[in-house]
Each structure stands twice: as C-alpha cells, then as structure tokens.
C-alpha cells in the first residue's frame, strides 16, 4: 500500500502553476462550499488535543483530526506552535504536516506540508466570514494587529473578496510591522505602520480588523475597548489556547460573535469570555442563514472567532492532494509495512529468509541472566 | 528543513541486517531501560484520543503522543484499528505510522511505519512484564487466545526471555488458530491448537497466557474464571477501548494487576473493572521495585494490563531512526515548506516570480458577485 508524499517543491509547483490568486480563490470556494454543507452527522471533528511544554521554550504540539463518513476519509494535522521560532530559529511559529487516511482500513493515503496550507486556509476562512460580516458598500480600511506570517494570508484572502483600499498595521515588534508592506506588495494596496500611541485613534477608523498575534495566555486583550464604526468586522485569529484572548470582553458583549467551531472556541477562543447564550451561530450556520439575517449581522459590530477548524484542514488537505493527482505530482512510497499475511507481522519481508528457525536459547545476555537460564 | 522518511524497505533492511532475534532483544533492552528510568517530570504522555466510527465498518483512528524534555523530542503515533481488515482487505487490523518531532521548533524529524514496530514493541512490553511476573523455575506452557498478528510477536518476545516448552492456541476463528504454528515456526516450539470445549481444562494447565483478541466492546470476558496455577501470569493485550475487556473480574480481583499506563488502563484496559486501590504499581514502578517484591508478585497470579503505551512508541521510534542513521538508510525530504522569511508564508517559493503584483479586483466570479463589485 503506497502513500502519496508531497514535498515542499510539489506544493510550490501547484502554487506556481495555478497561480496564488487563483489557488486562493479556489480554496475559498472549496471551504465556503464545504462549510455551507457541513453536516454534524457526516463530519466528526473532536476538539483538538495536544502537549504543551515550557522548556526549552514555550511550545505546543497538537493533533487536529477530522473524518467525513460520506467520503470515507479522515485527516490529521499535527501542528507545532513555537512562538520563539522566528526570532531564534528563523522559521515560522506554526509548522505542521497534513495526512489523509482511508477510514475503511486506516491506510495512510497521503502526507504533505501543513505550514503553507494552514496559513492559506486561515486567511481563506477569514475571507469567508468577512464576505458576509464586513461592510462592502464602500472602500474599506483594513487594520492588522500582529504582522507575522498569518497576517500575509489574512490580507491576501480578504483583498480577494472585499474592496480594501488601505491597510493599517500595528505590531509591538516594529521591524515586523515595517516589513509587512513589502511582504504584501503583491496586493498593490498602501500599507501604513502605526505605533502603540496611535492605535486607539486608528482602531476607530477601521472597517475591518484582523488580530493575529502570538501573545502569551493571560496577557490579553491586545487593546482597550474603543469607539468603533457601527459595522466594524473583526477577524480574531490569534486565540488558540486556554486564557489566550485578543479582544476586550466589553467589545465582544456588544458584538455578533461567530465562532468557527463553538466547542473549541469556548475553550480556547474569544468565546472563552462569553456565555453560550451570548454567541451567534457558527460559520457553517452563518453561511446557511437567510440574506436578511446576514445583512443584519453585517450592519452591526461583528467578530469572527477563528480558532482553527480541523474540517478546514480536511478540505485543504484534499484540495492539495487532488491538485497533486491532476498534475501527477508527489512520490508514491510504501511507508506502512504490508505483510503478505495480515496475521503475520514478519510477512512484509520480501526476502523470505527471515525470520528463520533459531535456537530456543535467548541470545541476549541480560534477559538470560534475569531468568536464570 | 528535511524529514527522514523510512520506507517499509528500510525497515526490512534494518531487520535483515540486525536479525530478528537480535533486533527484538535490543528493543526489549531499550524498553526495559527506558521504563526503568521513566520520570513523570521528564516524560509527558497524555492518554490517547481518537475518532471512533461504525461505518462502513467499525474503526478507530487514534493519536498517541509522547514528549521527553531531556532529549527535546516528541513522537506521535497515528494508529488505525480496523478489525475487519484481515478478512475483508487482507491487511492487518492495526496499521500505523510513527513520527518524531523536535520540541524546540516543532519540526518533523522523521516518519516511519508503525505497523511492524507496534507489533514488535507490544510483544517486547509483554516480555518485560513476563520476565518479572511469570514463573521461571520450570519449562513453561504458554497459552495464546487470539491468534492474530499480535500473537506472533507475543510468542517471539516471550520466548526470548523465558523457557517456553509448549504453546497452546485458541481462536474462535479456527483457521487463524491453525495457521499460527507455521507463522511462529521460527521459535521451534511445539504449537497445539485447541477448541472452545477444551479451553477451560487447558487454561488450568498454563504457566503464561497472552490474550490478544479483537473482540467488540461489551462482549468480554473471553472465558469464565478458572482454577489457575497459583503463579500463572497473564498478558492481557487486547483491551484498548472503553468496555473492551478480556479477563473475568473475579480473576482480576485475586491477581496482582500491573498496568502499563494506569490512567489509560482505567479507561480502556482491564483496569476498567477495578478500583484504583485494587491495582498494583505500573510497569515502570515494577521494574524499579525490590527483588523481594518482584519475587512475591511472581509467585502469585499476575496480570499485565497492556493497553499500549505511547512512551514505548517513543522509544521504538528512536530505536528505528537511530538504526536508520547508523545504516545510512531513509530518504531526507523537504516536506514542510521552509520560508526564507519566517514571517512570509510565500517565501518558501524558490522561483521568485510569485506572488507578483496583481490587480486589486478579485478574480473569482462568485466573491465578486457576492460583494457587488
């Protein structure tokens, strides 16, 4: 049984051949369609679990699984979150890999990078929520707090679906804020960097805001509540851990708060700060809601509480694997040993000489001493 | 950043070059040493979590992670359990892959098969418990209930450490029971197949018993309680799910029950049937206990409740990766995209032309219609 392995270079080939705008537009379409038809009886998405550690640096490795009964497929994303990576190791905070499994047998069908797809799908999910919840009747000012890797795909995706005319950036790391302009130069929209003193004034002028920071749990919110435009939309992307929050509770309480995944958002998203009764329907239900309900939500202050949905990873995994299939990319490798007799683990050996009859006497010195043979 | 990928053929090369007995002896040594020095403050092993489904067939995909602070390493085993695999698909019930991560950064260091290593380590863990808990003062009769893939490595491992002179097999699937003799011919020990009627009599004659069945949750125990030899040792290997049990509660209650991993065994092992006060110290503590305590446990009825320990997978993963390193095996592949700028997900592109400046106007028809541009 072979596993299709996509290398980083295969992902590059897909991106180069399809084009980044077209690829992102298609992923937005796939995710929108997938979530609009999300059926809890067809899709199982447990809240993620992981191992958190404080040494040598703060870090977290998590498992995000999802299964879809209709297609008899499961995916697993294993994602590392190590916020000291950019400064200490010049690698992204979030590294991950995606795997696809056949749920009839458990066979590993494919493995690919999850680092770039995660950035892309996180941007795409904000675009899907913003399409409905953000104003769209005028040229828009987009604010970014946290100018890391995720901000690039937030900007890319949101500018694909909404008429953004200026981007305003704050990051307490000034060099990160300053470099964002060149990193998103491909969207051809002016980027202005502001400092902490200017932040409250600028917040009040925004039409959309994306918060995508790596603050430590317990240190939020990122700013004091402010006098917002009445139809401001916020994509709160950074919260993904208990006690990690970005948005002030008073703002949340007067907003239409739409979680990507309610159960998870209650544990590690902005929804930690709210009672279930204060939370609006999730993004799947938002997509299926009536035009009048969507318009009503758009005309009020709204927050998309994006904790990261494993079903978005499921869709994204198969989106890339399908492209790999159609472009004949990837390497098919036998990773799982395939015994010719399923009842004999040694029968995967292609050279039939092993294991061969051996003496009953144990070969190892230690066990022999232990049991006195 | 490269990931070392071991193919099934690399695992075969390791097994062929080291030899199956020597390899198993060394793995037993590594696991014994690892568990004897197990420190809860150094090793994190959450109880596993997974997705269970009933369609198209009963199946389960689980995540078994472990981290070791001292070595700054984490492993993850993703394991599928699909008991209809042998009959319907001629592949093993348990398929899995093992991954190793660097906990400083979250980087995926290596991937390899987990199917063969799981069978091997499950046998090895039974051998480690049996070395201490089973009689060793006479030639021993080993009983096997459940003649599937795991029974092969149970027999191989136990015969490496104890003087087994006969093997008695029961499986309600008669052809599986009958074929075990040829599958374990390499141990050169007589194998006798018995039927259900003969089972009670034979149980009373055993010195060691391994239960390694795939019964459905709720259907256990496998047999009625019986008049056992006073120092009988049982390796209960099959229980790995809530309500899945193999051993009668009355037998457990008079036995020295040693779990591999207490928290997990209480949820999905034989220990489900016991109160914590009825359970002996776990295998790590057994290995560190005094000779007199070990002798006392050996002279009584004992059960090793083996639910599958993620730290055993941790040790086994690095055991194979270290062999791959020393034999120059495996393929180093860049799976994770490696951006040259950690703050720019697109900077993994080696061809610098992408993404290039684009028009602000969304390219996709659907979003454009949606927001009325």
Could you walk me through the main structural features you see in this protein, from its secondary elements to its overall organization?
Two copies of one chain form a homodimer. The first copy, chain A, is 35% helix and 21% strand. Chain A has 373 residues and is an alpha/beta fold. The longest helix of chain A has 19 residues, at 115-133. Chain A is globular. The first copy, chain A, starts with a strand and ends with a helix. At the A-B interface, helix 1, helix 2, strand 3, strand 4 and strand 5 of A face helix 1, helix 2, strand 3, strand 4 and strand 5 of B.
Topology:
Two copies of one chain form a homodimer.
Chain A lengths: L2 E3 L2 H11 L1 H17 L6 E2 L4 E5 L5 E10 L4 E9 L3 H5 L4 E9 L5 E6 L1 H19 L6 E6 L3 H13 L2 E7 L3 H10 L7 E3 L5 H7 L2 E4 L21 E4 L12 H5 L2 E4 L2 H7 L14 H6 L2 H8 L3 E4 L4 H17 L4 E3 L31 H7 L2
Parallel strand pairs in A: 1-7, 8-9, 8-11, 9-10, 11-12, 12-14, 13-14
Antiparallel strand pairs in A: 1-15, 2-4, 3-4, 4-5, 5-6, 6-7
Helix pairs in contact in A: 1-2, 2-4, 2-12, 4-5, 4-12
């Amino acid at each position: 049984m072979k596993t299709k392995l996509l290398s980083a270079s295969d992902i590059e080939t897909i991106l180069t051949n399809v084009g980044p705008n077209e690829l992102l537009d298609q992923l937005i379409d796939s995710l929108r369609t997938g979530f609009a038809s999300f059926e809890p009886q067809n899709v199982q998405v447990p809240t993620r679990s992981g191992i958190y550690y404080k040494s040598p640096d703060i870090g977290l490795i998590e498992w995000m699984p999802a299964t879809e009964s209709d297609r008899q497929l499961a995916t697993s994303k294993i994602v590392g979150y190590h916020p000291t990576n950019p400064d200490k190791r010049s690698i992204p905070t979030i590294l991950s890999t995606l795997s696809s499994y056949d749920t009839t047998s458990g066979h590993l069908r494919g493995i690919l990078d999850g680092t770039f797809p995660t950035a892309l799908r996180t941007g795409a999910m904000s675009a899907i929520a913003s399409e409905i919840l953000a104003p769209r009747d005028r040229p828009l000012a987009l604010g970014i707090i946290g100018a890391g890797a995720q901000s690039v795909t937030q900007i890319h995706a949101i500018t694909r679906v909404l008429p953004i005319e200026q981007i305003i950036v704050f990051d307490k790391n000034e060099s990160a804020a300053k470099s964002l302009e060149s990193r998103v130069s491909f969207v051809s929209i002016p980027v202005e960097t502001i400092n902490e003193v200017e932040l409250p004034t600028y917040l009040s002028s925004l039409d959309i805001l994306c918060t995508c920071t790596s603050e430590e749990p317990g240190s939020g919110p990122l700013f004091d509540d402010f006098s917002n435009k009445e139809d401001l939309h916020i994509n709160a992307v950074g919260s993904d851990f208990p006690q990690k929050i970005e948005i002030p509770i008073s703002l949340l309480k007067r907003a239409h708060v739409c979680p990507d995944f309610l159960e998870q958002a209650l544990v590690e998203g902005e929804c930690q700060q709210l009672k279930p009764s204060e939370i609006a329907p999730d993004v799947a239900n938002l997509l299926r809601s009536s035009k009048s309900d969507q318009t009503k939500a758009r005309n009020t202050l709204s927050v998309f509480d994006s904790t990261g949905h494993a079903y978005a990873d499921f869709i994204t995994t198969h989106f890339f694997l399908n492209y790999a299939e159609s472009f004949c990319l990837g390497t098919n490798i036998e990773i799982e040993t395939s015994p010719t007799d399923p009842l004999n683990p040694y029968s995967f050996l292609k050279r039939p000489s092993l294991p061969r009859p051996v003496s009953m006497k144990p070969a190892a010195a230690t066990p022999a001493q232990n049991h006195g043979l």
